[in-house]
Amino acid sequence: MRFSIYQDSLVGERQVNQDRMGYCYTRDCLLMLVADGMGGHLHGEIAAQLALQAAAGVFQANARPMLDAPARFLDHALRRGHREILDYQQASRLPDAPRTTIVACVVQQGQVWWAHVGDSRFYWLRDGQVFLRTRDHSKVQNLIDLGLIQPDEADDHPERNKVLNCLGSPFEPTVEIGGPRPLEAGDTLLLCSDGVWGPMSDGRLAAALPGASLLIDVPRLVRQAVERGGPFADNATALAMTWEGEAGKGVQSAAVPDGAITTTIAVGPPDSAALGDAISEDEIERTIREIRAVIFRTGGNRS
Protein backbone atom coordinates (compact mmCIF):
# COMPACT_ATOMS: atom_id res chain seq x y z
CA MET A 1 0.00 0.00 0.00
CA ARG A 2 1.06 3.58 -0.69
CA PHE A 3 -0.82 6.48 0.82
CA SER A 4 -0.43 9.99 2.23
CA ILE A 5 -1.99 10.73 5.61
CA TYR A 6 -2.30 13.74 7.91
CA GLN A 7 -4.37 14.81 10.90
CA ASP A 8 -5.07 18.08 12.70
CA SER A 9 -7.31 19.49 15.43
CA LEU A 10 -8.22 22.90 16.85
CA VAL A 11 -10.10 23.67 20.06
CA GLY A 12 -12.30 26.33 18.42
CA GLU A 13 -14.17 28.50 20.93
CA ARG A 14 -14.45 25.72 23.51
CA GLN A 15 -12.39 25.60 26.70
CA VAL A 16 -11.27 21.99 26.20
CA ASN A 17 -10.67 19.92 23.09
CA GLN A 18 -12.73 16.75 23.55
CA ASP A 19 -11.93 15.36 20.08
CA ARG A 20 -9.40 12.57 19.60
CA MET A 21 -7.91 11.19 16.38
CA GLY A 22 -5.37 8.59 15.32
CA TYR A 23 -4.36 5.87 12.92
CA CYS A 24 -2.54 2.53 12.89
CA TYR A 25 -1.16 0.48 10.03
CA THR A 26 0.62 -2.76 9.38
CA ARG A 27 2.27 -3.83 6.17
CA ASP A 28 -1.12 -4.66 4.63
CA CYS A 29 -3.84 -2.83 6.58
CA LEU A 30 -4.68 0.72 7.73
CA LEU A 31 -7.10 1.81 10.48
CA MET A 32 -8.21 5.46 10.88
CA LEU A 33 -10.27 6.83 13.79
CA VAL A 34 -11.86 10.10 14.93
CA ALA A 35 -13.89 10.37 18.15
CA ASP A 36 -15.80 13.42 19.38
CA GLY A 37 -16.34 13.45 23.13
CA MET A 38 -19.79 14.77 23.92
CA GLY A 39 -19.60 18.09 25.75
CA GLY A 40 -22.97 17.68 27.43
CA HIS A 41 -21.58 14.81 29.50
CA LEU A 42 -18.76 14.76 32.04
CA HIS A 43 -15.31 13.73 30.74
CA GLY A 44 -16.23 13.50 27.06
CA GLU A 45 -12.52 13.70 26.18
CA ILE A 46 -11.85 10.60 28.28
CA ALA A 47 -14.61 8.69 26.47
CA ALA A 48 -13.07 9.66 23.14
CA GLN A 49 -9.60 8.61 24.27
CA LEU A 50 -10.82 5.28 25.64
CA ALA A 51 -12.70 4.56 22.41
CA LEU A 52 -9.57 5.16 20.32
CA GLN A 53 -7.38 3.09 22.62
CA ALA A 54 -9.85 0.20 22.62
CA ALA A 55 -10.10 0.13 18.81
CA ALA A 56 -6.34 0.40 18.41
CA GLY A 57 -5.85 -2.43 20.89
CA VAL A 58 -8.22 -4.71 18.99
CA PHE A 59 -6.42 -3.78 15.75
CA GLN A 60 -3.05 -4.58 17.32
CA ALA A 61 -4.33 -8.01 18.36
CA ASN A 62 -5.97 -8.92 15.05
CA ALA A 63 -4.13 -7.25 12.14
CA ARG A 64 -1.45 -9.90 11.48
CA PRO A 65 -0.78 -8.25 9.11
CA MET A 66 -4.33 -8.22 7.66
CA LEU A 67 -7.74 -8.46 9.27
CA ASP A 68 -9.67 -11.65 8.57
CA ALA A 69 -13.02 -9.83 8.47
CA PRO A 70 -12.77 -6.00 8.44
CA ALA A 71 -16.52 -5.40 8.88
CA ARG A 72 -16.66 -7.71 11.89
CA PHE A 73 -13.53 -6.07 13.28
CA LEU A 74 -15.08 -2.58 13.06
CA ASP A 75 -18.22 -3.70 14.85
CA HIS A 76 -16.22 -5.44 17.58
CA ALA A 77 -13.70 -2.59 18.00
CA LEU A 78 -16.32 0.13 18.43
CA ARG A 79 -18.42 -1.97 20.82
CA ARG A 80 -15.26 -2.70 22.78
CA GLY A 81 -14.83 1.05 23.23
CA HIS A 82 -18.40 1.30 24.49
CA ARG A 83 -17.79 -1.41 27.10
CA GLU A 84 -14.55 0.16 28.28
CA ILE A 85 -16.27 3.51 28.78
CA LEU A 86 -18.92 1.81 30.92
CA ASP A 87 -16.16 0.01 32.85
CA TYR A 88 -14.51 3.37 33.45
CA GLN A 89 -17.78 4.79 34.77
CA GLN A 90 -18.15 1.91 37.20
CA ALA A 91 -14.53 1.98 38.35
CA SER A 92 -14.64 5.75 38.86
CA ARG A 93 -18.07 5.61 40.52
CA LEU A 94 -19.49 8.23 38.19
CA PRO A 95 -23.26 8.84 38.21
CA ASP A 96 -23.25 8.83 34.41
CA ALA A 97 -20.81 7.49 31.81
CA PRO A 98 -18.85 9.87 29.61
CA ARG A 99 -19.95 9.62 25.98
CA THR A 100 -18.50 9.99 22.53
CA THR A 101 -19.37 9.66 18.89
CA ILE A 102 -16.87 7.87 16.67
CA VAL A 103 -16.07 7.16 13.03
CA ALA A 104 -13.58 4.61 11.74
CA CYS A 105 -12.40 3.08 8.50
CA VAL A 106 -10.18 0.21 7.41
CA VAL A 107 -8.21 0.04 4.16
CA GLN A 108 -7.01 -3.36 3.06
CA GLN A 109 -6.23 -4.98 -0.33
CA GLY A 110 -7.27 -1.81 -2.16
CA GLN A 111 -10.71 -1.73 -0.55
CA VAL A 112 -12.29 0.35 2.20
CA TRP A 113 -14.75 -0.45 4.98
CA TRP A 114 -16.16 2.24 7.30
CA ALA A 115 -18.26 2.46 10.44
CA HIS A 116 -19.73 5.19 12.60
CA VAL A 117 -21.74 5.80 15.75
CA GLY A 118 -23.33 9.24 16.04
CA ASP A 119 -22.54 12.28 13.91
CA SER A 120 -18.79 12.05 13.36
CA ARG A 121 -18.53 11.61 9.59
CA PHE A 122 -16.70 9.60 6.93
CA TYR A 123 -16.29 11.33 3.57
CA TRP A 124 -15.01 9.70 0.37
CA LEU A 125 -13.76 12.30 -2.09
CA ARG A 126 -13.14 11.52 -5.76
CA ASP A 127 -12.37 13.93 -8.62
CA GLY A 128 -12.91 16.95 -6.41
CA GLN A 129 -16.40 15.95 -5.25
CA VAL A 130 -18.03 14.06 -2.39
CA PHE A 131 -18.40 10.55 -3.78
CA LEU A 132 -19.94 9.15 -0.58
CA ARG A 133 -20.48 10.13 3.03
CA THR A 134 -22.11 8.68 6.13
CA ARG A 135 -25.53 9.76 7.38
CA ASP A 136 -25.68 11.10 10.92
CA HIS A 137 -27.42 9.31 13.76
CA SER A 138 -29.16 12.50 14.84
CA LYS A 139 -32.60 13.99 15.43
CA VAL A 140 -32.23 16.36 12.48
CA GLN A 141 -31.21 13.57 10.09
CA ASN A 142 -34.26 11.57 11.18
CA LEU A 143 -36.47 14.58 10.43
CA ILE A 144 -34.88 14.90 6.99
CA ASP A 145 -35.35 11.18 6.29
CA LEU A 146 -39.02 11.46 7.26
CA GLY A 147 -39.48 14.44 4.95
CA LEU A 148 -40.45 16.72 7.83
CA ILE A 149 -37.69 19.24 7.10
CA GLN A 150 -35.48 19.98 4.09
CA PRO A 151 -31.70 19.43 4.23
CA ASP A 152 -31.06 23.18 4.02
CA GLU A 153 -33.09 23.67 7.21
CA ALA A 154 -30.80 21.46 9.28
CA ASP A 155 -28.17 24.10 10.09
CA ASP A 156 -30.64 26.34 11.88
CA HIS A 157 -32.82 23.67 13.46
CA PRO A 158 -33.11 24.01 17.27
CA GLU A 159 -32.32 20.29 17.75
CA ARG A 160 -29.40 20.17 15.33
CA ASN A 161 -27.01 19.05 18.10
CA LYS A 162 -29.15 16.18 19.39
CA VAL A 163 -27.33 12.89 18.77
CA LEU A 164 -29.37 9.67 19.00
CA ASN A 165 -26.53 7.14 19.06
CA CYS A 166 -23.17 7.16 20.87
CA LEU A 167 -20.66 5.13 22.84
CA GLY A 168 -21.11 5.28 26.61
CA SER A 169 -24.90 5.55 26.73
CA PRO A 170 -26.93 3.09 28.87
CA PHE A 171 -28.08 1.43 25.63
CA GLU A 172 -26.06 -0.74 23.28
CA PRO A 173 -24.93 1.46 20.37
CA THR A 174 -25.90 0.87 16.76
CA VAL A 175 -22.70 0.50 14.72
CA GLU A 176 -23.47 1.33 11.09
CA ILE A 177 -21.01 -0.30 8.69
CA GLY A 178 -20.34 0.30 4.99
CA GLY A 179 -18.20 -1.39 2.35
CA PRO A 180 -16.26 -3.03 1.03
CA ARG A 181 -15.77 -0.73 -1.93
CA PRO A 182 -12.68 -0.53 -4.18
CA LEU A 183 -10.43 2.52 -4.03
CA GLU A 184 -8.99 4.34 -7.04
CA ALA A 185 -5.66 6.15 -7.09
CA GLY A 186 -6.22 9.75 -6.02
CA ASP A 187 -9.24 9.02 -3.80
CA THR A 188 -9.19 10.82 -0.46
CA LEU A 189 -10.86 9.47 2.68
CA LEU A 190 -11.72 12.02 5.37
CA LEU A 191 -12.85 11.35 8.93
CA CYS A 192 -13.97 14.38 10.90
CA SER A 193 -15.92 15.67 13.88
CA ASP A 194 -19.00 17.86 13.52
CA GLY A 195 -16.84 20.88 14.28
CA VAL A 196 -15.43 20.43 10.77
CA TRP A 197 -18.47 19.47 8.71
CA GLY A 198 -20.99 21.60 10.60
CA PRO A 199 -19.87 25.00 9.24
CA MET A 200 -18.87 23.57 5.83
CA SER A 201 -21.10 22.51 2.94
CA ASP A 202 -20.08 19.34 1.12
CA GLY A 203 -18.85 21.47 -1.77
CA ARG A 204 -16.68 23.67 0.45
CA LEU A 205 -15.31 20.65 2.24
CA ALA A 206 -14.34 18.92 -1.01
CA ALA A 207 -12.79 22.12 -2.37
CA ALA A 208 -10.61 22.41 0.75
CA LEU A 209 -9.01 19.02 -0.03
CA PRO A 210 -7.96 19.26 -3.70
CA GLY A 211 -5.45 16.46 -3.25
CA ALA A 212 -2.22 18.38 -3.78
CA SER A 213 -0.82 18.01 -0.25
CA LEU A 214 -2.63 16.81 2.85
CA LEU A 215 0.11 18.44 4.93
CA ILE A 216 -1.28 21.78 3.72
CA ASP A 217 -4.91 20.90 2.98
CA VAL A 218 -5.94 19.28 6.30
CA PRO A 219 -4.83 22.17 8.57
CA ARG A 220 -6.44 24.60 6.12
CA LEU A 221 -9.74 22.70 6.25
CA VAL A 222 -9.71 22.67 10.06
CA ARG A 223 -8.84 26.37 10.22
CA GLN A 224 -11.59 27.28 7.73
CA ALA A 225 -14.15 25.32 9.76
CA VAL A 226 -13.22 27.19 12.94
CA GLU A 227 -13.23 30.56 11.16
CA ARG A 228 -16.65 29.88 9.65
CA GLY A 229 -17.94 28.73 13.03
CA GLY A 230 -17.07 32.12 14.50
CA PRO A 231 -17.95 32.58 18.18
CA PHE A 232 -19.78 29.22 18.16
CA ALA A 233 -16.87 27.23 16.68
CA ASP A 234 -16.71 23.72 18.11
CA ASN A 235 -13.66 21.49 18.46
CA ALA A 236 -12.62 20.76 14.87
CA THR A 237 -10.74 17.57 14.03
CA ALA A 238 -9.89 16.02 10.66
CA LEU A 239 -7.90 12.95 9.61
CA ALA A 240 -7.44 12.38 5.87
CA MET A 241 -5.74 9.79 3.69
CA THR A 242 -5.09 9.95 -0.06
CA TRP A 243 -4.79 6.55 -1.69
CA GLU A 244 -1.94 6.07 -4.14
CA GLY A 245 -2.30 2.34 -4.74
CA GLU A 246 1.05 0.76 -5.46
CA ALA A 247 2.66 3.92 -6.86
CA GLY A 248 3.26 7.43 -5.58
CA LYS A 249 5.34 9.26 -3.02
CA GLY A 250 3.46 8.61 0.20
CA VAL A 251 3.88 6.02 2.94
CA GLN A 252 5.02 2.66 1.64
CA SER A 253 3.56 0.20 4.09
CA ALA A 254 5.69 -2.63 2.74
CA ALA A 255 8.52 -1.03 4.73
CA VAL A 256 6.75 -2.00 7.97
CA PRO A 257 8.39 -5.20 9.28
CA ASP A 258 6.29 -8.33 9.37
CA GLY A 259 4.30 -8.38 12.63
CA ALA A 260 4.94 -4.69 13.40
CA ILE A 261 2.43 -1.85 13.68
CA THR A 262 2.94 1.86 13.13
CA THR A 263 0.53 3.92 15.22
CA THR A 264 -0.19 7.40 16.60
CA ILE A 265 -2.39 5.90 19.34
CA ALA A 266 -0.82 4.79 22.61
CA VAL A 267 -2.45 1.53 23.67
CA GLY A 268 -1.98 -1.02 26.39
CA PRO A 269 -2.62 -4.75 26.07
CA PRO A 270 -5.80 -5.17 24.01
CA ASP A 271 -7.56 -7.10 26.75
CA SER A 272 -6.51 -4.79 29.57
CA ALA A 273 -9.30 -2.91 31.32
CA ALA A 274 -7.15 -0.96 33.75
CA LEU A 275 -9.61 1.88 33.79
CA GLY A 276 -9.93 2.31 37.52
CA ASP A 277 -7.19 4.96 37.36
CA ALA A 278 -8.67 8.13 35.92
CA ILE A 279 -6.95 9.52 32.84
CA SER A 280 -6.17 13.15 33.61
CA GLU A 281 -6.62 15.92 31.07
CA ASP A 282 -2.88 16.68 31.38
CA GLU A 283 -2.03 13.10 30.43
CA ILE A 284 -4.36 13.20 27.45
CA GLU A 285 -3.00 16.53 26.25
CA ARG A 286 0.57 15.25 26.68
CA THR A 287 -0.29 12.26 24.48
CA ILE A 288 -1.69 14.58 21.80
CA ARG A 289 1.46 16.74 21.93
CA GLU A 290 3.65 13.67 21.55
CA ILE A 291 1.63 12.50 18.56
CA ARG A 292 1.90 15.91 16.90
CA ALA A 293 5.66 15.97 17.54
CA VAL A 294 6.05 12.61 15.81
CA ILE A 295 3.97 13.79 12.85
CA PHE A 296 6.04 17.01 12.61
CA ARG A 297 9.34 15.14 12.71
CA THR A 298 8.20 12.75 9.98
CA GLY A 299 6.83 15.42 7.67
CA GLY A 300 3.16 14.70 8.29
CA ASN A 301 2.60 12.19 5.49
CA ARG A 302 5.80 10.24 5.96
CA SER A 303 4.84 8.34 9.10
Spatial order of the strands in the main sheet? 7-6-9-10-1-11
Number of helices: 7
The CATH topology name reads: Phosphatase 2c, domain 1
End-to-end separation in angstroms reads 13 Å
**Which parts are unreliable, with pLDDT below 50 for 5 consecutive residues or more?**
269-281, 290-303
Q: Element order, helices and strands?
A: EEEHHEEEEHEEHHHEEEH
Q: For this structure, what is the CATH homologous superfamily?
A: PPM-type phosphatase domain
So what's the overall shape?
A: globular
- Coarse structural class: alpha+beta
Taking all residues together, what is the mean pLDDT? 86
Q: What attributes does this structure have?
A:
disordered C terminus, six-stranded antiparallel beta sheet, alpha+beta, 303 residues, globular, 7 helices
Topology:
Elements: E1 2-10, E2 19-25, E3 29-37, H1 44-62, H2 70-92, E4 100-108, E5 111-117, E6 121-126, E7 129-133, H3 139-145, E8 176-182, E9 188-192, H4 194-197, H5 202-207, H6 214-229, E10 236-243, E11 251-252, E12 262-263, H7 281-297
Helix pairs in contact: 1-2
Structure description:
By secondary structure, this protein is an alpha+beta fold. It has a single domain, classed as Phosphatase 2c, domain 1, CATH 3.60.40. Helices cover 30% and strands 25% of the residues. The strands form 2 sheets. Strands 7-6-9-10-1-11 form a 6-stranded antiparallel β-sheet. The protein has a 6-stranded antiparallel β-sheet with strand order 8-5-4-3-2-12, covered by helices on one side. A hairpin with a 2-residue loop joins β6 and β7. α1 packs across α2. The chain is globular. The C terminus is likely disordered.
